[in-house]
Design goal:
This protein is of the alpha+beta class. The protein has a single domain, classed as 3-Layer(aba) Sandwich (Aminopeptidase). Helix content is 27%, strand content 21%. The protein contains four helices and seven strands. The strands form two sheets. It has a five-stranded mixed beta sheet with strand order 1-3-4-5-6, sandwiched between helices. The chain has a two-stranded antiparallel ribbon with strand order 2-7. Strand 3 and strand 4 form a beta hairpin. The longest helix has 15 residues. The protein is globular, with a radius of gyration of 15 Å. The structure holds coenzyme A (COA). The site of coenzyme A (COA) has 22 residues, from strand 5, helix 3 and helix 4.
Length: 164
């Protein structure tokens, strides 16, 4: 492959080590002990075998989207591009690929959570035409306290985190 030529494809089991290594480098990401373990990620992609996406360049994974659905609507998690490969359209290409895959699954809507302080992330979602909801509150209930979040950089306090 020539420099900056990339390939977009579906995430596979054997990508886990590289994908996890990339996630650990992304400023603002929260990593969860159970959800982001190999077992957790493989469980997710086995439930959604066609919709999670990686971008590869020179044989290395440089971008990811974990995308899955419950039969009604879909969610994106861990959307990222390695810092030195941003602003080349790779994020947009991955989003397009994941949206197409979900469309083929007859899913009508995708949601994601972006922390308000994540300027790069929020600008990106507006750039790719996503609509910010102003009329809802997000609720959660923790079912397993062992699923502990750790943050990739100390600069990001939990309320500063860019991605859930
Ligand atoms: C958000 C993120 C995935 C975007 O990835 P990316 O590959 O840089 O995305 P793109 O290149 O498709 O688009 C980014 C910007 O580059 C611009 N761009 C796209 N192609 C370009 C090109 N060929 N030349 C110059 N600029 C380009 C786009 O216009 C876009 O502008 P924006 O600032 O209005 O969004 C990346 O910034 C990232 O990993 N951020 C950290 C993690 C994160 O915050 N994730 C989102 C969590 S909600």
């Amino acid at each position: 492959m020539t420099e900056n030529t990339y390939n977009i494809r579906v995430m596979r089991d054997e990508d886990y080590a590289q994908v996890h290594k990339l996630w650990k480098q992304i400023s603002g990401f929260a990593m969860r002990t159970l959800d982001d373990s190999e077992e957790g990620v493989l469980r997710f992609i086995h439930r959604n075998p066609t919709t999670s996406i990686v971008a590869e360049m020179d044989g290395e994974i440089i971008g990811t989207i974990l995308a899955g659905h419950d039969g009604r609507q879909a969610s994106f998690y861990h959307v990222c591009v390695r810092k030195d490969k941003r602003n080349m359209g790779i994020g947009t290409a991955m989003v397009t690929a994941a949206m197409r895959a979900l469309n083929e699954e007859h899913v009508n809507k995708i949601t994601l959570v972006a922390f308000r302080k994540n300027e790069v992330g929020n600008r990106f979602w507006r750039h790719v035409g996503w609509k910010q909801r102003e009329d809802v509150n997000v609720y959660e209930f923790i079912l397993n306290e062992k699923n502990i979040s750790t943050f990739n950089d100390e600069v990001y306090a939990p309320s500063n985190t860019s991605e859930k």
